[in-house]
Amino acid sequence: MTVALQATTPATFEIKSANLPLVALLLKSTDLVALARELDARFGDIPDFFDQDALMVDLSPLPPAAGDIDFPALISLLGSYQLVPLTAKGGSPAQMAAALQAGLLPVPDAHLVPARPAVAAPPAPTLVAPVASAPAAPLGALVVDKPLRSGQQVYARGRDLVVLAMVNAGAEVIADGHIHVYAPLRGKAMAGARGNTEARIFSLALEAELLSIAGVYRTSEHPLPPGMAGKPTQVRLVPGDEGDKLVMNVMAA
């Protein structure tokens, strides 16, 4: 027998399941002084890189013998970069208890998007994006058609960057995706800024002060290979036994 019962729907609210896209901080050290230094080196010149992004602190990369973590100080540090720590996972019972006391919710079942980590040097924080609730329509490339002077900075958040004019020394071009410079590139270029290891940099005349993909970088202290300066060049990230490396190829005219 089937029975239909009268139901009452609240007029003032509904409760439904929801997914929250998060940024994850994979913490590799409890040394917050070193963390602050490396965050400043990575994001200090990009004050709007994060925009009140919700964040999960993943403690699983910490060594087993890692000590206590000053979570209030960590939360304050991350907040200074417009990150909003909400959750934590992967720590020891003592670490997770301290995280909970600091207001972070435990999320043991949270998982990250599978990605090959970028290795840039000493232990440093790695930021990756977990699965979002639904795929969003891709943004079109940000197009810049005027020369960029020293001190100017352009950031293509969540998309590619196309520059149709010269990027002078002292200027910075940053993108979460690819960077295309259809002119001399003499400043700094940082592609895959949020950890996209598939991002690439293209320039019709490569003379850059700094090149970076997903945090792996090369500065002008290391001269370009012979015959490459000023040539049309593609820069990509290639994995290796000793860590990822930037590989440059001169493109056919």
Topology diagram in text:
Layout: E1 23-26, H1 32-43, E2 53-58, H2 71-79, E3 83-89, H3 93-101, E4 105-106, E5 126-128, E6 142-144, E7 153-156, E8 161-163, E9 172-175, E10 179-185, E11 188-191, E12 201-206, E13 210-213, E14 216-219, E15 233-238, E16 245-250
Parallel strand pairs: 1-2, 2-3, 3-4, 6-8, 7-9, 8-10, 9-11, 10-12, 11-13
Antiparallel strand pairs: 1-5, 12-15, 13-14, 15-16
Write a brief caption for the model.
The chain is an alpha/beta fold and 253 residues long.
Overall description:
- There is one protein chain.
- The protein has 253 residues and is α/β, with parallel strands linked by helices.
- It has two domains: 23-128, Alpha-Beta Plaits; 142-250, 3 Solenoid (Pectate Lyase C-like).
- It has three helices and 16 strands.
- It has helices at residues 32-43, 71-79, 93-101; strands at 23-26, 53-58, 83-89, 105-106, 126-128, 142-144, 153-156, 161-163, 172-175, 179-185, 188-191, 201-206, 210-213, 216-219, 233-238, 245-250.
- Residues 115-124 and 129-134 have low confidence and may be disordered.
